[in-house]
Amino acid sequence: MLRTRTFTCVRCGLTVGTLDPAGAVRNHCPSCLHSQHLVDHVAGGRSDCRSRMSPLSIAVLRTGDWRVVHRCTRCDELTSSPVSPDDNQLILMRMAVRPLAQPPFPLDVFAQW
Ligand SMILES: [Zn+2]
Ligand SMILES: [Zn+2]
């Protein structure tokens, strides 16, 4: 059985329970969505990096589930983790619309269709 544990957010200092309201294990802060690089996702096992991982973007799975993509501020490793029901929805929406708000090409072409 999983014991309820907490971690302290490396960015905002919030004390976060490792289980979200849905009972799933979480690894990022629900308030600022930052995480810490503790797991080596390439080699497996624990990582010695321990640096801050900032939320980069949203990925949507075929099932429709959202994941937050994190990038380590020190070693640039990319990871993704599931969105929890109490994650900061403003930050999630901001990340989701950012590519549409800042397209790398002019959108005029769509007006001609
Ligand atoms: Zn935080
Ligand atoms: Zn790292």
What are its keywords?
four-stranded antiparallel beta sheet, 15% helix, 2 helices, 113 residues, alpha+beta, binds zinc ion, 6 strands
Overall description:
The structure is a single chain. By secondary structure, the chain is α+β, with helices and mostly antiparallel strands. It has one domain. 15% of the residues lie in helices and 26% in strands. The protein contains 2 helices and 6 strands, in the order ββββββαα. The N and C termini lie far apart (57 Å). The relative contact order is 0.17. The site of one zinc ion has 7 residues, from loops.
Helix-strand blueprint:
Blueprint: E1 6-8, E2 15-17, E3 35-36, E4 52-60, E5 66-72, E6 78-82, H1 89-101, H2 108-111
The protein binds zinc ion (2 copies).
Residues 9, 11-12, 14, 29, 31-32, 34 line the site of one zinc ion.
Total tally of structural domains? 1
What is the approximate shape? globular
Topology as H/E string? EEEEEEHH
Which structural class is indicated by helix and strand composition? alpha+beta
The biggest beta sheet reads: 4 strands, antiparallel
Number of DSSP helical runs: 2
* Total DSSP E strands: 6
Cofactors and ligands present?
zinc ion
Summarize, please.
This protein is an alpha+beta fold. The chain is built from 2 helices and 6 strands; from the N terminus they run E-E-E-E-E-E-H-H. Bound molecules: zinc ion (2 copies).
